[in-house]
Structures are given as structure tokens and as C-alpha cells.
Predict the structure of Tetratricopeptide repeat protein.
Amino acid sequence: MRHPIVISAALMGTLALAACDQSGEAQVERALQDVNVVDETNLNDVMLTVADPNEAVNYFFRASTNDPGRIDLMRGLAKSLIRARRPAEAAAAWKDVVDHEDSTLNDQINYADALIRTNDWTAAEAALDAIPPTHETFKRYRLEAMVADSNEEWENADSFYETAVGLTTSPAGVLNNWGFSKLTRGDYSGAQRLFTDALRNDPDLFTAKNNLVLARGAQRNYDLPVIQMTQIERAQLLHTLALTAIKQNDLTIGRGLLREAIDTHPQHFEAAVRSLRALEDNVTN
């Protein structure tokens, strides 16, 4: 009479063990999935920062092909194409992101940025116009300023640049862009002030150093500014100053600056040597 009870108990024990095994397997599977998500997130971050840009493009292209519709992978592909200096493909990739149901206004801004890199200013302006004015970010206003520059809407450009400067703790790059805008308008003293402000925020920004020399040279001030520079940078800035002088027909000053650039550079300064040779040949002829 007791045998059925024993069998039932054994059966129950077996079922319980099976249930425990299944539960354990499910927990392990969930844990592995969590680990995979963390690993993938870390890998995505690496690909977007330190990986070779073209390798990152291939990675995100494969990942988004294998898992279509995942907007994080689509963004990764678009960002990687920008890093790889493939703006036309990046613009198309950002358009796909913008068309996604989970896209954000920042995606629209990145789309406008990619369009600017392809020189499609009209489309970039339309993309920015589609963003509500209440969405105020540094990148949005920096791009708005660049579009205004392209349209020669100088007052709007100044307003956008000023707003962008106020929205970042690292304004050197946008101050340099603003200064270059002033330089193209012929406002050399205004450009000089902005390039100086850029270098005050980032003393290592060589583009601002070179632009500052251009602004001073345009005012026929052929002395190098008192700024932080390496010996190679000093030679390069002297070369820039020399070319500015020559362009303004101050040939004697230009020749002297070229020779000083050649003497200053710690290696052979081929560009300055060619410039000096061309100047002397033209003068001789």
C-alpha cells in the first residue's frame, strides 16, 4: 500500500529537481544576456572613441545589418562615418536615424552637421529650422552661426556665436570660428580680439594662432604676437606672416620673414624655401 506513495514522492522530487535545473538555466541565461549587453555597450563606446574610424564603420555596419532597426547601432554607424571623414555617407546614415520613430532633436542637429560637411547648406538650414527654438544646445547654435555665415547674415551669425559661447565651458573652437567669420568680413581688429580670446581659453590651439597672425598681418602688423608657441610653430607662423606681407606687396618684409622662418625651423623647412625661391625668381624676372 505504501509503494504508490514512494513512487509519487520520487516523481515529485525528480520534477522539483528538473524545475530547479530549468530555473537555474534561465537565471544563467539572463545573467549571460546582461553581461553581453554590458560588453556590447563597452565595445560600442570603444569603437566610437579610440578605434580606427573605418574599422568602427565596418563594425557598426555589420551590427546594424544583423540587428536592423536598433537606433543605437544606427547612430554608431553615422558617428563613425563622420569620424572616418565620409560626410556624404554620414548624411545618409543620419537621415535614416532622423526617420526612426525613436529619434531625438539632437539626432536632427547631427544630421544638419553632416549636411554642412557636404556643403549642402540649404538642406542643413532646413534641418535646423525644423528644430523648435526652445531646444537650445551649444552644437545647435554653433551650426546656426555657420549657416548664417554662409548666407552672409552677419548680425544673426554674431548673435548665434555669442549664444554658443555662453553654452559651453570650452569655447576656444567656436571663438576661433567666430574670429574667422570676422576675418572674412574684413573686420580684422574684431577678428584679432576673438582669436586672442580663443587662445586664452586654449593656448595650444594652433589654428587660432595662425588666424591671429593673419588678422595682424592684414593690418600690416608683421610682428609675431606674444603667445605660447613651440619653435616649429614659430617658424610656421613666420611663414604665414611672410605670405601675408607678400600678398600685400610688402615684398622686402616678406623676404625677411621667410628667411627668418627658414632659420628658425629646427629641420629643413621646404615650404618656406619654395616660397622664398618663388619670390626671388619673380622679383628677378
Summary: Residues 230-285 form one domain. The longest helix spans residues 3-49. Residues 1-20, 31-38 have pLDDT under 50 and may be disordered.
